[in-house]
Write a structure and sequence with these properties.
The protein is 20% helix and 38% strand.
C-alpha cells in the first residue's frame, strides 16, 4: 500500500473516532434544561404509550434504587439522582465513557391526568410507568 493511501486511511480512522466521541458526548453530557447549582448530565430515555399508561425507560447503569428520586408535578415527571464511580479513586482510569455524577431529567407529559405507577431498576435501566387517569 502506498504511503499516501496509508496516511489517508489513518486520517479517516482518526476522523471516525472523533465523530464517535462527539456522538457519545452529545448523548450523555447534554446540560440540563433547568438551571441547576451543580453540573448534571441527562440519561437517555425511551418513551412508550399504551391505552392505559406511559412507560419510560431510562439508562442508568450502576445506579442504586436509593440514589434515584422521582416526582410528578403538573404535566412533567422529574427524575434525578447520582451515579458514583464504582471503583476506588486511586485507580488509573483508562477509559471513561459512562457518565457519573449528578443526573437530572425532566420529561414533559401530554395533557391529561397521570398517577405514578411502578418504578424499578432492571438490568441497568429505570422502568417507570405512569397510569392515565
Amino acid at each position: 500500500m502506498p504511503l499516501r493511501d496509508l496516511e489517508l486511511l489513518m486520517w479517516a480512522e482518526a476522523c471516525e473516532m472523533l465523530d464517535r466521541a462527539d456522538r457519545l458526548h452529545r448523548q450523555f453530557f447534554r446540560p440540563s434544561a433547568r438551571p441547576v447549582q451543580r453540573l448534571t448530565w441527562e440519561p437517555p430515555i425511551d418513551v412508550y404509550e399504551t391505552a392505559e399508561e406511559f412507560i419510560i425507560m431510562m439508562a442508568l447503569p450502576g445506579v442504586s434504587p436509593e440514589d434515584v428520586r422521582i416526582a410528578l408535578e403538573d404535566n412533567r415527571i422529574h427524575i434525578q439522582g447520582e451515579r458514583n464511580l464504582p471503583i476506588r479513586t486511586e485507580a488509573r482510569i483508562l477509559r471513561l465513557e459512562i457518565p457519573y455524577g449528578r443526573f437530572e431529567r425532566s420529561i414533559e407529559l401530554p395533557e391529561g391526568d397521570f398517577e405514578l405507577g411502578t418504578h424499578e431498576l432492571i438490568q441497568g435501566c429505570l422502568l417507570l410507568t405512569l397510569r392515565k387517569m
